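PROTOCOL LOG
Step 1. Enter all chains and additional molecules of the complex.
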Amino acid sequence: MNKIFSYPEALVDVPMHYCPGCTHGIIHRLVAEVIDEMGVMSKTIGVASVGCSCFNYDYFNFDMVATAHGRAPATATGVKRVHPNCLVFTYQGDGDLAAIGTAEIIHAAVRGEKISVIFVNNGIYGMTGGQMAPTTLPEMKATTSPYGRNTALTGYPIKMTEMLALQDGCVYAERTKISSVASINKTKKAIRKAFELQMAGKGFSVVEILSTCPTNWGIEPVEAIKWMENNLEAYYPVGVIKAPKEVE
Amino acid sequence: MMHQFLLAGFGGQGVMLMGRILAYAGMKEQKQVMYIPSYGSEMRGGTANCSVILSEEEIDALVVSKPSGLVVMNAPSFDKFETRIRENGLVIVNSSTVTREPLRQDVKVIKVPANEMAKELGNERIANMILLGTLISATKCLKAESVLESLKEILPVHRHDLLPLNQKAIEAGMQLAE
Amino acid sequence: MAEKILMKGSEAIAEAAIRNGCRYFFGYPITPQNEIPEYLAKRLPEVGGTFLQAESEVAAIYMVLGAGAAGARVMTSSSSPGISLKQEGISYMAGAEVPCVIVNIMRGGPGLGAIQGAQPDYWQATRGGGHGDYRLLVLAPATVQEAVNLTYEAFDLADKYRNPVMILGDGILAQIMEPVELPEENKEQPEKTWAVCENHNRPRNIVSSSYPQVDVLEQINLRLHKRYNEIKNNEVRWDSYLLDDAEYVIVAYGSAARIAKAAVKMARAEGIKAGLLRPVSVWPFPVKPFQDILPQVKAFLALEMCTGQMIDDVRLAIGNARPVHHYGRLGGVIPLPEEVLGKLKELVKEGK
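Step 2. Run joint prediction.
Step 3. Record the structure below.
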């Protein structure tokens, strides 16, 4: 009998700490599958940042560096400059990437740093307990926007991936979501494109993945997916934002 | 013997180059040397100055508070530093730009019309080399050959066509001290 | 013996780094240390290295973390305000045990302060600087030659102890030019089996300062503490001048120590039994030489270009056994040997 399914080699076989309904586990798996399929596990170096995914070095089965909140793109820059033949990626949440790490992510893109960024956007600070993120939607409640995000007071959700795509050094930027088999497959394809472009030495690549946080949104997992599509996706439309001609 | 020189003028007059040549030549003569530039806002178009210490012994202090020799290339530098010269010290004044008489009676003053002399030699920008010549000759701190050799090493190769002119300037300056 | 060449302190530090295998530099412009990045921007490509100007000091220190975690010899340099910005990353590197060399060319503070050389960051350098219970090995050169030697050695020490090493200089040392002899290029570097890199047939390496379980973190803290004690035992460095019969001992490090030495010479000429004790490693601080000379000493004078920080370590070294005085000029003003002599004479006269 042919084996048609197996646990990814690039993933350690341990239970993950994520909440029920959280999509980090799916995204980890997609990253691992792409690495397996590309056959690059022995030369992959991941950079974990701070947020719910900060312990992902326990799950990814390859060399990892864990760094500070927002600083993953700078850390990955140091790693990549020393090992230019390795596949180097950061895995960052929206608080990490779009608030405290704004300068680092923009300038990694500006430099055309040959790294890939997995940017998981669920519109809230998960790990610290549901505070308002730069991506929190208008009127959306969070522990630090208990009356709903007041745009007059705190401004509007930041469109990071669009900003990154504007930079000449960024070769590939796509926004996807995790809500169905189809969107999961699309996300996997996007991750693969980003990694392949990096390995081809083309430049900076980013995949923003709309995700859910049932725990801090305060709704059931299945509801959360619907809420994400109806609200987060409405503000942050999925699709390719920038890609080189051969990829489009 | 420890020489402590303070060289001062406008930015662009070649004060820093003068200092570097002195330090470099001192090193060639196996002396202890230190070159201390002033830096910061003073470098951007205002007055520029640097200090050079040439010594047979180890150099301790990092600052020239009472120079044994002062070279001033413009009037503001003369006003600023005249009081600091050591008793019986030496002041070399670029008399092309500094017209007033010195206030100090306890120092030796040599007036050098460096700009006019430089113009006569064919290039006004070598006024600093004329003053450098006067300084090494009046203080006997260094041999002319080591200064010329240092100049050759410090100047980029594409400027080496200027070496004969610089040599002339240094020699002209030296004669004034005698 | 190598030929002597005339070099600026900052450029000499940069060249010494290259001579001991540093091939990566990440930094951000700030006066008075710009000649270090400028020199390396020119020089590193010549030796197959990488110079990268970061978008901030914060980004720069994390690039250092990345390159250090990847096993490379890496350096960053900055001046006081920029070093403050790097503190977060320095703490992460201490926690993740990533070796690197950090150069602080101190200037007057607090805040933006001024760009002239000063010594106001002693506490920051020797007491950790960032958050968490860690130490840096901190070396304070007093001459351009010593800056070369200590920078060269710093890379070996950083690798040996898997800990960041700081070169604590100041704007004076960085700007002066003195003749130096450069060491031969070292091509050999220790193997780093813990670093992240292309990896075949070994368990994965994780470089991290994250230890979410308290009992695990306690063990890590104890392990680091043990290493700091090793550093204390092995790496104390100091220098002295006319200390054998000294009754009045000036304690000074870096640039201030040179001024102190000039003052000691002047004092001796006037019959005052003065001497100089110069800590070269300011962490670990040289405690033993203080105890050795204590019986003969009447008083200590800490000379620092700040209002008094190292003086704490002098007091810790001798307890209340002798009076400890302070003299310093501030904000970038360089103390003159004559002023220090004046202070010494005052102490002698008052029998302090």
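Step 4. Note key features.
Chain C has two domains: 5-188+210-234, 239-349.
The longest helix of chain C spans residues 214-234.
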